[in-house]
Protein 1
Amino acid sequence: MTPLDHLLLLSALTVVVMLVIGNRQTAGWNATVLYAAQGVALLLMSGLGYGTTEVVDSSVSFQVLDQQLHWRFDALSWFFALITIGAALLSSWFSAGEWAQAYRRHGGSLRVFHFALALNVFSMLVLLASGDLLSLFIGWELVSWASFLIMALGGATATRYAMRYLTYAFAGAMAVLGGLALVYSLVGSFEFQALKAAAPTLDRTSLWLLFALFGAGFGVKMALLPFHLWQAKAYAETPGPGASFLGAISSRMGLFAIAIVLVQLIGIARLVDMPVPFSFLSARDLLAWIAVFTIIFPTFTALRQHDARRLLAWHGIGQGGYMLLGILIADDLGSAGGLMHVFNHATYQAMLFMSVVAVIHRTGTSDLNQLGGLVARMPLSFVAMLIGIIGLAGLPPMNGFVSKWLIYRSLILEG
């Protein structure tokens, strides 16, 4: 077995264990230990030289309809996996305290919550380990259904918003599936390298179809405009630390898929070489402007929110635009800033969501118009929220400033 097999096996074991013991009072602590073990396995993978400079393959491989499915980890997979496991560890640790008792008293099932969280982590690791387009699609669908499960745990209102998400997810999945069918008809293979090798020779019509199908399909999960209306309410209604996990990493799976298919396989050079008819824009410019509008409009909507959870969820949509914009600039500063912002945003978004959940636990509301004066009652939450807000605003000396400045600097240098 390879180090990647050990990681995936540990993650699958966590799903099974949470299904069996998830309703016990110690389930949160048990889950935290298991996520810590996954983190150790991931760090050992890096220590062995994997996930940083080399690619590690899984020993699991099989054929479906004459197509070989396989899984592997590279540096990008390792980076997103680090954030995924870290967010799950902190969320399960939070759920091991008073929140779990209150959640159970109000009729919530800790077993289903811990199972849904573990299933999300396993699904995301399967997606991040994709070795070909078909395995990527399988991981994509697993992530969609796992996200729906944890979103729907918050009651009738949460289920309604989760169903809205599912409608968007179905449409996005069909677009991605259409892209896969087009790739197979053009290239004759689902292998990453086959598409990468064929991309320079594909005609512009085919490239535009691939760009539209994959861009729309992956953009739904990332909540890019105009596919953003499902996310804020669905994330805000997700129970407690589940919302912090989703806000930290879930929608970034869309960014990962865009980085793999559009940036790495089709290539920025081809996107730049695809002019938008009757305009001065290229396909890369078009996607970059979508990222810019995704920064602006959801952030403006966040300013109009009175519920703290929805305010954070709307801000999270806007922050995704920064990440995509940095990656699309595609120089050293822009790519570093975009990817660093994935990590930075996960840290302060998780911190802010958990602080808000703590406030709800103590006061029973997240309505900003009814809250005030909590600095004396909840000083630790105040400090955590202050640090998170400075990071969210992109002000020095917090980490949000560093990644945003790298993106701004790259935009200036690239004209």
Protein 2
Amino acid sequence: WAPTKALLEHRLGQTALATLACLKGGLTIRDPGILRAFAWMRTQKLTKTYDVGLLLMALHALHAPGDDRTTVDSYGRREGKDPCTKNMSKEDRAWMRKCVAFLLEHQEGGHWRYPENGQDISNTQYALLGLWAASRCGMKIPAKVWMSSLEYLLRSQEPSGRAIKLRVNEVRGKYVATWTENARARGFRYIPKAAAVSGLKPVTGSMTTAGMAGVAICQDELWASRKFTPPMRKRSRRAIRDALAWMQDNFDVTRNPGEPEGAWHYYYLYGMERAGILARARFMGSHDWYKEGADYLIERQRSDGSWLRESDVFIDTAFAVLFLKRATSRTRNPAITHSAK
């Protein structure tokens, strides 16, 4: 896939994103286009956080066809090993180890950069998504990596927000449990307040789903670790709950809420898909997030099968496909199981 001029420096990442969408969309390891894409990606240097995170996700999808959303117990916990652990070739496993080493080397205080320029939630989420994909393929990621990022994300979430009654739901196997909780609508910004040096970015849907997804991933990877203490569990659960509260309070599939002119719209929709699946949430407030998002996208597909909302047809189409396929895997453990208090 040829990148647009504005994205030449991320040509590996754009190709990995398009390949990931094709694999999640139904193409297999035997497809000639998939083989050509991976052959080209093998020739590229690892230089960008986004690129490496997406490459790890594509490698996982290559060796774990389909999804694991049906192999869960009555509490929604994923059962069995990820097929990637036994399907991956030695060559691809070595490639994956190089990608993991790159991301571990460039983690700073729990966050990631491009790696040039300042910290941000977006680079951090794609690094965590990539490391999570590698972990599911059997790569050993030190607990301190997840803990450092979890602490960073918890610090980065808005410290306060509007008090609301959150309508919580959790998919457990074939059932959906529902309840309500008092919450604060606390979202995330592209650059956290404490790190902003040239003007404060707004709280947005795309960054709130990114921060929430990162917390859910770190929580899942730390679930059995002694480092994941009861106070940290409580903070993590509260962070996910309050991010869901922000989404309930600002829900919209027609634009990226909080972002001027709704920029990064399809990027946000894929973020909503990740947040919904990782939180095991069938609804966001009273909204059926998948149905509303799917209806919106289906109405806007172009005659050639693509989508284009902003500046790049490959990226917008990839994000649309990933949303429609509900491409994100479940976490091994529930994200926000009902708690009395």
